[in-house]
Structure prediction request, 149 residues.
Amino acid sequence: MDIQVKVLLSRGMELPAYATEGSAAVDLRAAVEADAPVTIAPGERALIPTGMAISPEARDVVAIVAARSGLAIKKGICLANGIGVIDSDYRGEICVGLYNTSKEPFMVNRGDRIAQLMFMPVYAARLCEVASLDETERGADGFGSTGVK
Prediction:
């Protein structure tokens, strides 16, 4: 699948790339100014630009922004919205909302790998209103109803 990538000249970043042949996603890098890193205080959020915009070749593709596991586990830096959804018709700059769950300030420098971007198929659904749904063994039980083990 081809994804057209526009590198925003004002940001001057390189194209993202897969780190290994088995990588499921490309790393997104921070396009903050070299002389103006962004510090995210504990419990705070920041919107970090990546310096790129995309155009997938087809409407039935979504780009998903996901956290980097090392940042989340080692530094407490997560995505502010859980995951990011980049719709196939969005042409603006991809920005990443980061949230600092740690007790220490976190500094984002130019070129830091801050998130991952993966591409997945999308199935458009027809939503059909009905009076009732079919019965299943689980039914409406949720929120831990199947246990931990």
Observations:
- Residues 8 and 70 are 27 Å apart (CA to CA).
- The longest helix spans residues 69-75.
- The longest strand covers residues 113-121.
